[in-house]
Write a structure and sequence with these properties.
about 140 residues; alpha+beta; 2,3-Dihydroxybiphenyl 1,2-Dioxygenase, domain 1; 2 domains; eight-stranded mixed beta sheet
Amino acid sequence: MSTQTKSKTKSQKRNGAAASVVWFEIPADNIERARRFYGKLFGWKIDKFPGPLAKPYWLIDTGTDDASRNGGMMERQFPDHTITNYVGVPSVDQAAAKVKKLGGRICMEKTAVPQMGHFIVVQDTERNMFALWESDENAKWLS
């Protein structure tokens, strides 16, 4: 075990927990082609979400030891839509304020995923987009 894993990082000491990628989404122009590509490349299982959604969505199982899904796939929403990583944070509201303070910007306001949590999409100072995720089993659609 490295010394880094034995002791808390500076970020953990300041914020209580390390921020880490908790989910990812892959946009695709052709879902079946992308499913074949990632399935054959990595052995991922990619299945259509069974519930009712406004837009079709596929869940990605990367083969981790637990039964949870690790990412999603969707139809590309706009020409420059790239893979989005979701970083877990204790509060998306506090993280959004910090993004703005550090010179980033909010691209998509706080959005609920009912019974799972909330996310916002942000852009850093180098024009890279990513999402911030806050788990919340009581999350409901925001009005």
